[in-house]
Amino acid sequence: MNEASVRDTIVRWGKSLFERGLTAGSSGNISARVENGFIATPTNSCLGFLDPDRLSKLDANGTHLSGDPPTKELPLHFAFYEGRTCGAVVHLHSTYATALSCLSDTDPEDAIPAITPYVVMRVGRVPVVPYTRPGSAEVRPLIARIVAEHSAALLENHGPIVSGTTLDAAVFAIEELEEAARLAILTRGLPVRHLSKTAVDDLNATFKLR
């Protein structure tokens, strides 16, 4: 998409995510690749009230070129852009995924159980990245360790981050991650039937997943 379309799509998805309660207040941030750079949501902006003309324009190195100052989470976003081929990154503070990121018994290697085929197909295995202060560049090497094999992660005590080939794909994936996290928490302590390794391997082979 051209830059104008990317700006409009960020605003449209931001409004949708905010109105559905998937991120609150001025939390959450979105970025997307455009020719010769990136467009990102501004720092301390509410995703429900974005202005396409005030979104932050960055060059290929992440230097701010125009618009409002960008989200402080640029180190987090650029760790994904540098580590895998992706066109967009979405970070939210959605309730259930954030809850999983706070639970001490969440599996740090596989935080989202294979409870539906769609979480496998759209998200894959989700590791938990150790806590860093929001906006800290210290998150960059932590993401670098996992990003080649994972398109998504839970940030410890913080929330989910997802990359996608397009902005639509990244949003669909983070929505699926949140739904799977909700199911995982709602079924805790119940006799849950997870997908078998055979079923997961079949999904990976059929849909050519990583």
Description:
This protein is α+β, with helices and mostly antiparallel strands and 210 residues long. The chain has one domain (3-206): L-fuculose-1-phosphate Aldolase (3-Layer(aba) Sandwich). The chain contains seven helices and eight strands. The protein has helices spanning 3-19, 74-83, 95-102, 117-122, 139-144, 167-186, 197-206; strands spanning 29-34, 37-40, 56-59, 64-66, 88-91, 128-129, 152-155, 159-164. It has an eight-stranded mixed sheet with strand order 4-3-2-1-5-8-7-6, with helices on both faces. Helix 3 packs across helix 6. The longest helix has 20 residues, at 167-186. It is globular and about 50 Å long. The chain starts with a helix and ends with a helix. The model has no long low-confidence stretch (mean pLDDT 96).
Q: Give the name of the CATH superfamily.
A: Class II aldolase/adducin N-terminal domain
Q: Main sheet: which strands, in order across? A: 4-3-2-1-5-8-7-6
User: Level of helix content?
Assistant: 25-40%
Low-confidence stretches: none
Compute the separation of the termini in Å: 25 Å
Major sheet characteristics: 8 strands, mixed
Following the backbone from N to C, one meets helices and strands in this order, namely: HEEEEHEHHEHEEHH
Q: Would you give the CATH topology?
A: L-fuculose-1-phosphate Aldolase
Proportion in β-strands: 15-25%
Helical/strand content category: alpha+beta
Radius of gyration: 17 Å
**Which CATH top level class fits?**
Alpha Beta
Mean pLDDT across residues: 96
The rough form would be described as globular
Compute the number of strand runs: 8
Domain module count: 1
CATH level-two architecture: 3-Layer(aba) Sandwich
Per DSSP, the total helix count is 7
